[in-house]
Write a structure and sequence with these properties.
Elements: H1 4-23, H2 34-44, H3 56-59, H4 61-64, E1 71-77, E2 83-89, E3 94-100, H5 108-121, H6 128-137, E4 138-143, H7 148-153, H8 174-186, E5 190-196, E6 201-203, E7 212-215, H9 227-246, E8 251-253, H10 263-270, E9 273-279, H11 289-307, H12 316-320, E10 325-327, E11 329-341, E12 344-359, E13 362-373, E14 379-385, E15 390-392, E16 395-401, H13 409-417, E17 420-425, E18 433-434, E19 439-441, E20 459-463, E21 466-472, E22 475-478, E23 489-490
Parallel strand pairs: 3-4, 3-5, 5-9, 7-8, 11-14, 16-17, 17-19
Antiparallel strand pairs: 1-2, 2-4, 6-10, 7-9, 11-12, 12-13, 15-20, 18-23, 20-21, 21-22
Bound molecules: zinc ion (ZN).
């Protein structure tokens, strides 16, 4: 009897405790609302960057000149002698390494890292609880711009023409040695491998761009899943949930075929739960600023989920159900173009992709017919149904202009409406860049229509004899629309 009262007492206490525990917020409570993360981005976006082709010297101060807090250390130099830095912040037991731009022309995540650095240094903004949690529970280490030489040349590879992401084992390049040493010294629990992919990837067999593609890379050919890889998959599920709220459907899963020479695959093998983020394309976002914003939001969210160990709630089924990457996009698809040959008319779809080339510290594009025929499985960022329209060859305006600056947008549109697709100039300094809806020629008197694979498409589409659209270097110009677009062109 004597022990009965304490037992009842204990049972009551446990009962109350149980009720209290079950009233606690469920583990699926988000670590932060999307609106809050979006607000953080608006506050901390690094305003000095608004395009993706920035150079090392223009941004390196964003690494080296941080406020107190970041420990910034040079950890080696590139082939051409540019310093590569690691930046460390936080004192937590869970170590996270994030590295960007091992491929020189993949800069989207680097921009988002600069934004994230600003956020991590912020104060008196209401984000203190988030920031404190991150820095108490995590030790964050960043290596932005692993390939500064490639970045300055705007190429994927380094200055020795080595693909750093195929050099994790051979370690022939100094940049790969730097990244490998950084991993070995730090032994991170989590790694974020930050890249850009082609803008033409879609989420599965749909027309929706894979704006972000994700992968927990495999650590063997069998693509097995151990606890290390499983954690990476779970973090990805959390990231996917956030993107679905902002850009529904815009997530693809990168191919998980094991690449024994790649860093992500080897990080996973070496014991770091590794998450690959690939920034793809998004409509009307040629400079990838919306994609940069998404990067910031999902990285911050993922770090919070890691800090709170919230990712463990996610099932791997939700990882596997992310649609696979597929390449289904073109810049422009013109459907049902009528082509005549030997007195017969044929209907084809024309798929155009634009290739970028560096020039004058900027770039220009060349529209190329990537494919033609039945393109029903492909989609365009822009599409036009040309059914019922006639293809018309463009003329070159005979009287030369003195230079490109003499041709205004309105003048160019006027020439297009009169059937001129090209104009000549007397002077063109080093074939300068321009953004006119017209082919500007230094030499030459004619413009080929280019309706063949590999061709440079330039022609008009007319309806009942009236010119309706121009295809200029693969850009679609609506002749009834006067609002200027920015075409990236060069004098030819
Ligand atoms: Zn890459």
């Amino acid at each position: 009897m004597k022990r009965l009262i304490p037992s009842i007492f204990l049972a009551t206490v446990f009962g109350i405790f149980f009720i209290l525990v079950s009233c606690q917020p469920k583990s699926s409570t988000p670590v932060a609302e999307v609106a809050e993360l979006e607000k953080a981005y608006d506050l901390y976006k690094e305003q000095s960057i608004d395009h993706r082709r920035f150079k090392y010297n223009d941004v390196i101060h964003l690494v080296t000149k941080r406020k107190q807090g970041f420990l910034v250390e040079e950890i080696g130099r590139s082939v051409e002698g540019k310093s590569i830095y690691q930046m460390t912040l936080g004192q937590g037991p869970t170590k996270v390494l994030l590295w960007s731009q091992m491929h020189g022309n993949e800069s989207t995540a680097t921009m988002a890292l600069f934004d994230l650095f600003n956020f991590l240094e912020g104060e008196n903004d209401g984000f203190e609880p988030i920031r404190e949690k991150l820095l108490e529970r995590l030790t964050l280490r960043f290596i932005p711009m692993v390939n500064p030489d490639g970045m300055d040349q705007w190429i994927r590879r380094n200055s020795l023409d080595i693909d750093l992401n195929r050099d994790a084992i051979a370690l022939a390049s100094p940049e790969a040695v730097i990244l490998k040493n950084a991993r070995d010294f730090f032994s991170p629990d989590f790694g974020f491998n930050l890249h850009d992919q082609q803008i033409y990837y879609t989420a599965g067999e749909t027309s929706t761009p894979a704006t972000i593609s994700v992968l927990a890379p495999a650590y063997n050919y069998e693509t097995e899943v151990n606890d290390i890889r499983k954690r990476a998959m779970q973090v990805i599920v959390g990231m996917n949930k956030v993107i679905q709220q902002i850009a529904p459907g815009h997530v693809g899963k990168y191919d998980d075929a094991f690449e024994p020479r790649a860093f992500g695959d080897n990080f996973q093998k070496w014991g770091t739960s590794t998450i690959l983020i690939e920034s793809g394309g998004y409509p009307n976002d040629p400079e990838k600023q919306e994609i940069r914003r998404l990067n910031f939001i999902i990285m911050l969210h993922a770090l919070l989920e890691i800090a709170e160990v919230q990712y463990t709630q996610y099932s791997l089924d939700d990882y596997y159900s992310i649609p696979d990457n597929s390449i289904r996009l073109m810049d422009l698809v013109v459907r049902n173009i009528s082509q005549s040959k030997e007195q017969h008319a044929y209907e084809i779809d024309l798929g155009i992709r634009r290739r970028e080339s560096d020039a004058h510290g900027s770039f220009f594009v060349s529209g190329v017919v990537d494919d033609l025929g039945d393109l029903s499985i492909f989609y365009g960022f822009e599409e036009l149904d040309a059914k019922g329209l006639e293809v018309v060859e463009g003329k070159v305006y005979e009287t030369p202009f003195a230079n490109v600056r003499e041709i205004t947008w309105d003048k160019a549109m006027g020439l297009l409406r009169e059937g001129y697709l090209g104009a000549k100039v007397q002077e063109a300094v080093d074939r300068e860049l321009h953004s006119l809806p017209l082919i500007v020629l230094k030499n030459g008197n004619s413009i080929s229509m280019g309706i063949r694979t590999g061709g440079n498409p330039n022609f008009f589409l007319a309806q009942g004899g009236n010119l309706r659209y121009a295809i200029v270097n693969g850009y679609l110009i609506d002749l009834n629309d006067n609002s200027p677009q920015k075409l990236m062109q060069r004098v030819q």
